Amino acid sequence: MIEDVLKEATHKMRSTLQVFEEELSGIRTGRASPALVDRLHVDYYGQMTELRQIATISTPEPMQILIRPFEKSSVKPIEKAIQASDLGINPNVDGESIRLNMPPLTRERRQDLVKFLHRKTEETRVAIRNVRRGSNDDLKEFEKEGMISEDELKRGEAEIQKMTDKFIADVDARSHAKEKEILEV
Q1: Which fold has domain 2-25+106-183?
Q2: Was domain 34-101 assigned CATH 1.10.1040.10?
Q3: Residue 30: its pLDDT value, please?
Q4: What SS3 state is found at 146?
């Protein structure tokens, strides 16, 4: 019973960490990365579709992203989606492909990215703590119903706390590494 709660908590915390990693890959640093645009939503035949599903995305040069749509008709919607996004990059359309030239990051833009990173880090910590709270509530419910003893409850809560500390330390380490990468000139 306690093992099931621990397994579920581990799964949820791992999923939260995975989402955080995906968000980190989308935060721009000094280099071009396909992750900056691959989750961008494009109006594709009236359906909001992720860019990576309708185009190939590559980085032919360190400061450039090349987007090649599978269909020529989707060039315009992709261009609109990029302009509407908060990337702050003007797309260069050359017939069947779109090039994004990454401008160098200013000090002000780097500070904004660090603030955004801190906000995402805190949201992730809160999500992990919410998983902890839910798991502890489940254990308390089991104890109240007489399914586990008080000692087992304490042991389960201690295990969940240990797991929570480990995941939060992991989030902090990844956040610190990303911050260092953002501030690197």
Answers
A1: Topoisomerase I; Chain A, domain 4 (1.10.132)
A2: no
A3: 66
A4: coil
Task: Write out the H or E segment, with its range, that includes residue 98.
Answer: strand 97-101
Q: What angle do CA 143, 139, 134 make, to 5 degrees?
A: 145
What 3-state class would DSSP assign to 121?
helix
Are 49 and 59 in contact, with CB atoms under 8 Å apart?
no
Which helix (H) or strand (E) segment holds residue 16: the answer is helix 2-25
Q: Return the domain boundaries, the chain.
A: 2-25+106-183, 34-101
- Report the distance separating Cα 32 and Cα 59, nearest Å: 7
- What is the predicted pLDDT for the residue at 55? 93
Residue 168 is predicted with a pLDDT of: 97
> Using CA atoms, how far apart are residues 67 and 70, in angstroms rounded to an integer?
10
Between CA 98 and CA 83 the distance in angstroms is: 12
Q: What is the DSSP letter of 2?
A: H
Average pLDDT, 10 consecutive residues per value, the chain (185 residues): 92 95 78 80 90 91 90 91 82 90 82 88 96 95 92 94 97 94 79
Look at residue 29 in the predicted model and tell me its pLDDT: 67
Q: What's the chain's length in residues?
A: 185
CA distances from 29 to 10, 20, 87, 116, 140 (A): 31, 16, 12, 13, 45
Query: What is the Rg, in whole angstroms, of the alpha carbon atoms belonging to the chain?
Result: 22
Residue 73: DSSP 8-state: G
